[in-house]
């Protein structure tokens, strides 16, 4: 086995990269494509590995400054002043390092390690001051940050480490000792209990905010009639997939669809019948597309699909399958059909705007050719140049 292939070398390299602030501008790999396209459209309230690290940097800075200021006040004569100054300066130095790390997303373990390092600093401050040290209150900061930035299981781990570290610090505190009427045990219980209650409250509020944000985001990106994405959701997914296509070199196709005869159905049977037909067509699109494809309704009788990893030939197969499925669906009124236009990146164009224009031109050609058919943008003559 060569040295380059030894187990663990890749993990060590990734670990060094995660802790290297100079790699803040490194291009990140795209995340795996989610099964639900809305997953990528939900806003992140607080990125635990980017913005969260900068929040921790500010807390470390505040803790270090408060620690230095506290040394100017009357204190325990047995406290180890040099050690406390060093701990405060270490916290300030760590804040600068975390601020640089927060320039881009990092693995979750970086946030976890930062919080555990905070536990160590606080415990050492208590141990080198006195059992009655006010520095123990910093454990509340650690707990609140853990429940705000990490999943509950990891937050509980940080809380447990903080509780153990505080107990050890109280036992080792200079001029302290655990045999003075149980005051250390009482102080430990109240401090750790306060940290736990504050952490759980912050965690519950965070989960509630995430739930509400996801609901609002889903409503903002979903067509209320059909359940497909709306134009805003389609644009967001397309932006993501165009970037993925450029970086991977894989093809990407867009399909525009327009229902044939919907206006006549609305005039003859009313808009309720038209809405029911649109829902039936949306269901056909949902069931006949591929799992990774994303369907959307722009409004009225217009539909669209984003087809990742599909060239023009593959997109034509999907569009034709949906077109035939709509025509034969029992829930779709007789005489109602759909026309499709297909464009592909990078064969038809190399940018998002022209990709949409090419799909729209292909759809227009399908309508002009008699409807109930699919046209490829590659089959059309070049579009005339736009003149001012």
Automatic annotation (TrEMBL):
Question: Which GO terms of the molecular function aspect are on file?
Answer: diguanylate cyclase activity
User: Where would I find the GGDEF domain in this sequence?
Assistant: 250-379
Q: Where is this region: Disordered?
A: 1-36
Keyword Transmembrane listed: yes
Question: What residue ranges carry the coiled-coil annotation?
Answer: none
Membrane-spanning ranges:
55-73, 79-99, 108-126, 132-150, 157-179, 185-205
What are the entry keywords?
Answer: Membrane, Transmembrane, Transmembrane helix
Q: Which Pfam families match?
A: GGDEF
Biased region (Basic and acidic residues) positions are 14-25
Q: Which InterPro entries match?
A: Diguanylate_Cyclase (IPR050469), GGDEF_dom (IPR000160), Nucleotide_cyclase (IPR029787), Rev_trsase/Diguanyl_cyclase (IPR043128)
Give the SMART domains listed for this entry.
GGDEF
Query: Per its UniProt entry, which superkingdom is the organism in?
Result: Bacteria
- NCBIfam families on file: GGDEF
Q: What is this protein called?
A: Diguanylate cyclase, GGDEF domain
- Recorded source organism is Thermoleophilum album
């Amino acid at each position: 086995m060569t040295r380059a292939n030894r187990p663990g070398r890749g993990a060590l390299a990734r670990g060094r990269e995660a802790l290297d602030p100079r790699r803040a501008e490194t291009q990140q790999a795209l995340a795996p494509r989610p099964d639900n396209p809305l997953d990528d459209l939900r806003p992140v309230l607080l990125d635990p590995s980017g913005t969260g690290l900068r929040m921790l940097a500010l807390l470390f800075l505040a803790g270090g400054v408060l620690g230095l200021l506290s040394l100017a006040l009357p204190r325990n004569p047995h406290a180890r002043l040099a050690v406390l100054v060093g701990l405060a300066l270490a916290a300030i130095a760590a804040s600068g390092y975390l601020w640089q790390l927060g320039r881009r997303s990092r693995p979750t373990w970086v946030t976890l390690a930062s919080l555990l390092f905070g536990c160590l600093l606080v415990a050492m401050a208590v141990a080198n001051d006195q059992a009655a040290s006010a520095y123990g209150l910093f454990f509340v900061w650690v707990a609140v940050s853990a429940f705000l930035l990490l999943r509950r299981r990891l937050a509980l781990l940080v809380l447990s480490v903080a509780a153990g570290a505080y107990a050890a610090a109280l036992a080792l505190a200079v001029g302290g000792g655990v045999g003075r009427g149980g005051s250390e045990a009482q102080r430990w219980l109240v401090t750790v209990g306060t940290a736990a209650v504050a952490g759980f409250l912050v965690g519950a509020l965070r989960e509630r905010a995430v739930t509400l944000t996801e609901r609002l985001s889903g409503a903002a990106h979903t067509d209320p009639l059909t359940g497909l994405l709306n134009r805003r959701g389609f644009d967001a997914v397309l932006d993501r997939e165009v970037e993925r296509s450029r970086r991977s070199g894989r093809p990407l196709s867009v399909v525009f669809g327009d229902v044939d005869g919907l206006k006549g159905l609305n005039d003859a049977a009313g808009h309720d019948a038209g809405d029911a037909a649109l829902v039936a067509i949306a269901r056909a699109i949902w069931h006949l597309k591929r799992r990774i494809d994303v369907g959307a309704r722009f409004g009225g009788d217009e539909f669209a699909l984003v087809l990742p990893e599909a060239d023009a030939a593959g997109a034509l197969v999907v569009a034709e399958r949906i077109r035939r499925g709509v025509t034969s669906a029992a829930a779709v009124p007789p005489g109602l059909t759909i026309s499709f236009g297909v464009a592909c990146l990078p064969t038809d164009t190399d940018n998002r705007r022209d990709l949409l224009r090419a799909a729209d031109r292909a759809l227009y050609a399908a309508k002009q050719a008699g409807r109930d058919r699919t046209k490829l943008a590659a089959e059309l003559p070049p579009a005339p140049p736009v003149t001012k």
